[in-house]
Specification:
Length: 115
């Protein structure tokens, strides 16, 4: 118990350095549907997604959502949500989110400014 408390206290100051998480939109992606998001940003920003249904990742046979960074071929798929740190290009950060499953998925797309 004491060890957990020490770890928690060590993490709290780091959490205070991160920006506030702001939901950009909630969207239901149909199978193989893509949604692109582009926002103004002056510095590196985290773009990400989470399920709105906590049990949705249990149904995923693949990886639920593939996320691509616009300024490169970088991308990854996750079953339980995820995010990428993206550097601005021409004052914007952008990403595409694709449902790689055979059923609709409702997700939240969010941003978080980084220190």
């Amino acid at each position: 118990m004491k060890r957990c408390l020490i770890v928690l206290l060590a993490l709290v100051p780091g959490l205070a350095l991160a920006g506030e998480r702001v939901v950009l939109e909630k969207v239901t992606l149909q199978p193989q549907e893509r949604r692109s998001v582009s926002i103004d940003a002056a510095k590196k920003t985290k773009l990400g997604w989470d399920h709105t249904d906590s049990k949705a990742s249990d149904r995923c046979k693949k990886n639920c959502v593939m996320m691509y960074q616009h300024d490169s071929k970088a991308g990854y798929a996750q079953a339980f949500g995820g995010a990428m740190r993206i550097s601005p290009q021409n004052g914007k950060v952008a990403a595409t989110f694709e449902n790689v499953e055979d059923f609709p998925l409702e997700i939240e797309i969010y941003k978080m400014e980084l220190p």
